[in-house]
Amino acid sequence: MSYKKIWRPGRAFIHLCINEKVIKVMKVFKDLVFHSNRTGGINSRMDFDNGFSISVIAGGFAYSTPREDKDSPDDFDKFEVAIFNDEGEFVTSDFVLDLDDDVLGWQNRGQINALMLLIQSKK
Question: What is the 3-state secondary structure (H, E, C) of 66-92?
Fold first, then answer.
């Protein structure tokens, strides 16, 4: 089993490959669609086929850098992340060792990509 990164204009796809046969397209940070949050800042939520979902937020109220209300993910270097099960319960600590909170703060794009791949690989 291997991961193959395939670049397309404006998108990065990670394909899970077995014997060079693509069996699943994995979603990454660039696939998140952000919206303005009514309390300021931005947020995105993505549901995965296995029932888990990820929430990524940034703004003055979030554990993000900068901690200011801005309009685009390009304005932020780090984000606050939460992971939910299919019942809407926080399960972030099931994916991150030694986490004693429902959210994970100050995550960069690479760290969020790794979390998204981990979530999608869980059955």
Answer: CCCCCCCHHHCCEEEEEEECCCCCECH
Residue type, 100: D
Residue 104 half-sphere exposure, CB side, CA atoms within 13 Å?
A: 22
Q: Give tens-digit pLDDT for 10-23.
A: 444 445 555 555 55
Q: Are 50 and 69 in contact (CB under 8 A)?
A: no
pLDDT in tens, 36-93: 998 899 999 999 999 999 999 999 999 999 999 999 999 999 999 999 999 999 999 9
- Extract the tokens encoding 113: 């990509």
Q: How far is 26 from 24, CA to CA, in rounded Å?
A: 6
Q: Return the ∠ at Cα 30 (arms to 28 and 35), rounded to 5°.
A: 115
